[in-house]
Amino acid sequence: MDNDNLGGEKALLEERRKKLDQLRDKGSAYGNTFKPQNKAQKLHDEYGSFSKEELVEKDIKNISIAGRIILKRVMGKASFATLRDSSGDIQIYVTKNNVDEDVYEDFKTWDLGDIVGISGALFRTQKDELTIDVWDLEMITKSLRPMPEKFKGLTDIEARYRQRYLDLMTNTSTKEVFIKRTKIIDSMRKIMNKVGYLEVETPMMHPLAGGAVARPFVTQHNALGQDLYLRIAPELYLKRLLVGGFEKVFEINRSFRNEGLSTKHNPEFTMMEWYEAYASMQDQMDLTRDIILNAAKAINCESIIKWDDIEINLDNFKQATLTSLVLEHNKDLSIDNLNDPKKLEKFLKNKNIKIENSWGPGRMLLEAFEETVESNLIDPTFVTEYPVEVSPLSRRNEEKPEFADRFELFIGGKEFANGFCELNDPDDQASRFADQVAAKDSGDKEAMDYDQDYITALEHGMPPAVGVGMGVDRLVMLLTNQSSIRDVLLFPQLKS
Fold first, then answer.
1. Whole-model pTM above 0.70?
2. What domains can you pick out in the chain, each with its CATH number?
3. Given the DSSP bridges, would you call strands 130-141 and 89-95 parallel, antiparallel or unpaired?
4. pLDDT of the residue at 6
C-alpha cells in the first residue's frame, strides 16, 4: 500500500473514531438489545412475488432486521440503504417523516460497514424493488474500518485468505461455497448414520506417529515431559474400537501432516474415515460412490460437472488394477518389465523420475503409476491391487501376496479416497512396523513408529474389516468447482 492510501485510510479511521466518540456519549455505540425477527432472504422468498398493490393490501408490518450497511444513498429528507445479513441483502427506505428527526440526522452520518437494526413495513418502490419502510432504527455496531472499495468484494487473492471476514462480508460467492461445504459434510454424516455406522471421536494428540505414511507435527506436553504428535490419521485408534466390539464406526476428523503448502495441500485438513467389520472391499467401494453421489445431490449438482476445465461424469464410476493401468498408459512397458526390478528402474530413469535407493519394485511401480497414469483418470476410477511395499497397514491378497487388498479412488486426476482390507494378523503387522522403523532409521521422515499397544490390541483379535479414508476438502473442491484447497478452507495456512 502506498503512502497516499495509508494516509487516506488513517484519515478515515480518525473520522470514524470521532463518530464513535459521539455515539459513546449517547450510549449507543455497541448495542446489545436489538433482536431481529426476520432474515433478508426469507422476506424475499415469502413476499418477493407480491405486487405493489398486494403489499399495500397485506399491510405487512412489524418487520425487524439487523445487518451491515453495504450501500447508502442520502437524498435530503429521504434515504435508501442496502442491509446485508447472513442470508442476503434487502433495501431499506429511511425518511425524516417516519423516524425521529435526530435519529435521521444521525443515520445520514452512518458509514458503510456499520451494523444497524431497523423495524418497519414492506412495500415496493417506483423501481419495483422489495423494500422496508423504516419507522425505527438504531446503531448496533460501529465499524471503524472501511469495507473493500465499492462493496464489490475483495479481489486480491492473498487478502481474501488472510482476511476471510472481509471476503465473506463482501463476496456472496465465497459465502455460498462454505454453506455448500456444510451441506456436503452434513450429507456424509447422514448417509453413515443411515447405514448403521456409529460416529466416534479419537485423540488428536498421539504418543507415537502412526496411522499413515507422512511427516508428523511434534509438540511437547510439559506436565508429562514427553513429545506428542498431532494426528496424521485416526486409523489405529478406530481399529482399536473394532477390537473392542464396535463393528461400524466413522469419524469426521481434523488431521495434520507436516508437508508443504500448495493449492492441493494444507497441513491441517479434514477427512472422513470409517471401518466396517466383516465387509468386502466391493461393499466399501459402493459406499464410497454413494457418499459422493449423495453429497452432489445435497447441493444440487448435475451428474456432469466441471472442475476447472475438466468435464467429469459422476455417473461413470470405473474400476481397474494399478498394474493394468500402468501398462495401458505406457505402451513401451510389458508385464515382464514390471516383474523385473532392473527393467522397471531403467524405465523410471528414462522418464526422468527420481529413484531412492531404499525403493523396492512395489514402490517403483507406484511411482510409475503416479507419474504416468494418475493425472489421466478423469471420470471416477477405483484403482485396486496396490503393492504391499507401499501399503503397510493393508491385508495381503491371498492369491497375489505381493499385492494388498487395497483401492484408491481418483477423480479429475486426483486422489479422493483410500481404502483397504485391514491387516489383522499381529505378527504380519509387527513385521511391517519393523520395516517402517528401519525406513525411519535410514532417514525416511514419513515412516511410522512401532506401535506396541496396537500390536497388543491385534493379539486380542480384530475381526476382518475394511476401512476407508476420504478427503473432505477435496470433495468440496470438486463439487463447488474450486481449483485451490484454500478456497474451501475458511482459514487456510499461509506463509507469514
1. yes
2. 3-147 (2.40.50.140), 170-330+373-487 (3.30.930.10)
3. parallel
4. 63
